[in-house]
Amino acid sequence: MSDILDDDLELRVGTLQLTSDNANADNRLDNASDAKSSNKNKNQLNANPSVLSGADSLSSSTSSFADARAEGISNPEPRNASEPERTVYPRYDVPFNRENIKDFFTFRKGVVENAIQECITALLFPEDGEYLGSWLLTEITLWDNEKERIVLLTSRLVMTIKYDFIAMKQLDFKKTYLDDLDTIAIGELVYPPSSLVPRLNGIATGVTTVVKDCVIDRLCRRPTGNEEAKLFDPKYFEPRERNLRGVRLMWNKGEPLSLKTAWNPFSQDVPFLTFASHPIFWHKDGTLEERAMYDMETFAQKLQRAIESMPSSTCCIHHSPIVIQSYLGVTSLLHNKISLGFFKVRGKFSF
């Protein structure tokens, strides 16, 4: 009987020791996993926050292009029923509205397609390489002016075309060879910390919103007390960033711009090109594939593939914010607010 009790006790002690060893092993694995996650987060925080030139080049990125427009949608946070409903303010990250976009000549059916086909026939030659795609994008100049441009991509070059969509004729074009590129940056368009542009943009947008609501809406109906309070909400006047993604092609070898180029608004020697999606992208009916002609993300994807298929290319591809070096921006604010860089109907005139 004593032997049986001793055997049973040894069995229980062995089982307890085995369970304790397994628990310690699990704790060590959890600690190692937490350490790896912490190191990964530290590396992400230490990444280069912005790219002005190719001076601080990162390694070439072959990661897939994650569209920022879909961020935050896949894992929505549930809203507590007891929380008060927040006021919904206008979205300023979508350029123009449905009514204004119809004034664009490029919004008319077949206009862009015919213009692109004409440019391909007249400007592309066999020595320019294999044709890869065409887009209607918004070019953002050194002085933060938005301009409507046709962009053609081949296996050897990027061609930027200024096109008159009223007279349906080419005005000017520029070829940029892929071999000359040293840096490509893809990311959010941001202003320097000392820039006054976000503040001025917020004031201009707030004034426009209040005047529109006070003058137009009040002529149509008398607002209630709550609506009158919303008209002058100070959030309308808060600083507003571009809230727009872009792609920048650079061939300056990391060198800063000369004073002659940086302070000359008519300079043609700026060693980079910056593109964003055309405003029609947000208002055109159809699927994402049908609107790809106006999408900067699609252009950036094909551009990256073209660069990676060139064995001799030393171009570095960054996924980081793109700094627009505009500090006051009064002229560009006026230029972009009335969309002078786009061909559209303006009352009794069209230009």
Structural commentary:
This protein has 351 residues and is of the alpha+beta class. It is 33% helix and 19% strand. Strands 1, 2, 3, 4, 5, 6, 7, 8 and 9 form a 9-stranded mixed β-sheet that branches. A two-stranded antiparallel ribbon has the order 10-11. β3 (157-164) and β4 form a beta hairpin. It is globular and about 60 Å long.
Give the terminus-to-terminus CA distance.
107 Å
Give the uncertain stretches in residue-range form: 1-93
Mean pLDDT: 75
Shape: globular
Q: What kind of sheet is the major sheet?
A: 9 strands, mixed
Rg result: 28 Å
The percent of residues in helical segments reads 25-40%
Number of strands: 11
Number of helices: 8
Order of helices and strands: HHHEEEEEHHEHEHEEHEE
The proportion of strand residues reads 15-25%
